[in-house]
């Protein structure tokens, strides 16, 4: 089965529709599927719900879909870097569901693993626990969180082969792995598609079974907080 | 003289033992890394890295290598990378020995508030709730009072909680307090800070 597509628009053809739940990889602006987000913007799909740790910045990442008001709801752990997000949220145009970061990651992992719910100590005694089932195990209280089953997953990797085996680079792996697994369809954008057999089978980060469509392209890879030290400090 | 930021960080570094895997929060906790000395400490960054190195030299920044504060960082010879679900599995699973975090309020039951002020812009809890619920030991480093001079060490937190009964030790500019049965116990006073100074600046119950 052919998984390689010519561009992001073709890779999303037939898999994007209004009102769908999309799981997106990335942490901050690191490892975000920037080409696919641009293509979703161009598709005009609206009323989208994104499960994504962050919401990008005003002109990059999911932020570009906020500008065009294509997003109905965000499921995120931290959204502090985006002025348009805050404006829409405070005016009631945008729904927001805060999830603790590890709970969000595990909800995606669980969804991808066919687990509809799990218990965690995270958030017990906080507003996050309001309305959720509480259960004691070995004398400690846990709350139930639900797996995320997304209609579509969009992720960004470093390298892929034509069967969809993915390799990520450094901390750009982040949410890309759990997000990829929880989508009914997963589209991956990569920096390089390499010949079959050239990736070490022992070093595949995400097996191709999870990846249905692949595109290759060049990435801006914007840095959010450029922080350096001077040579003389060393 | 009460401790300054660097002295608080240096005191917090004394909490760390050889061989520990540790998560440091943003602000004063980040400075703790400067004071670990010869101890073999591995820093976790919850976006998916163990063995976090210092900031890169100018021109050597890598967009694919950032910490949980989204700052560019470097790797070490011991570094490993993993995905976010694995990262929080090791946090939730109690594999991280300690987290050193900042706080807006802490109370005598070990409740911690550090993510939200009602009526103000809410950015989100990030990984803070997972960390305080999961790691072996939670050490808070913060100023003892706010800019109005009100105690941040309370009988009961007034802000929405990050975690309930999660704090083990509080290190402030005035000294060190432990969360114990019935309240807080003074462990140490900063140089020149008296027992009376500490009690006056603390709203929480102090037990002997």
Automatic annotation (TrEMBL), chain A:
According to the lineage, what is the superkingdom? Bacteria
By its UniProt entry, which InterPro entries does this protein fall under? 3-oxoacid_CoA-transf_A, CoA_trans_fam_I, CoA_transf_BS, NagB/RpiA_transferase-like
Transmembrane is among the record's keywords? no
User: What keywords tag this UniProt record?
Assistant: Transferase
Is-annotated flag, keyword Transferase? yes
GO MF assignments: CoA-transferase activity
Instruction: Tell me the protein family, please.
Output: Belongs to the 3-oxoacid CoA-transferase subunit A family.
Under the heading NCBIfam families, the entry gives: pcaI_scoA_fam
Can you say what this protein is called? 3-oxoacid CoA-transferase subunit A
Automatic annotation (TrEMBL), chain B:
Instruction: Enumerate the UniProt keywords alphabetically.
Output: Transferase
Q: Which GO terms describe its molecular function?
A: CoA-transferase activity
Kindly list the residue ranges recorded as spanning the membrane. Answer: none
Cite the InterPro entries for this sequence.
Answer: 3-oxoacid_CoA-transf_B (IPR012791), CoA_trans_fam_I (IPR004165), NagB/RpiA_transferase-like (IPR037171)
Q: Check the record and name the Pfam families matching this protein.
A: CoA_trans
Gene3D superfamilies annotated for this entry? Glutaconate Coenzyme A-transferase
Against PANTHER family, the record matches this protein to: KETOACID-COENZYME A TRANSFERASE (PTHR13707), SUCCINYL-COA:3-KETOACID COENZYME A TRANSFERASE SUBUNIT B-RELATED (PTHR13707:SF57)
The record's similarity note reads:
Belongs to the 3-oxoacid CoA-transferase subunit B family.
Protein name according to UniProt: 3-oxoacid CoA-transferase subunit B
Q: Which organism is it from?
A: Ruegeria conchae
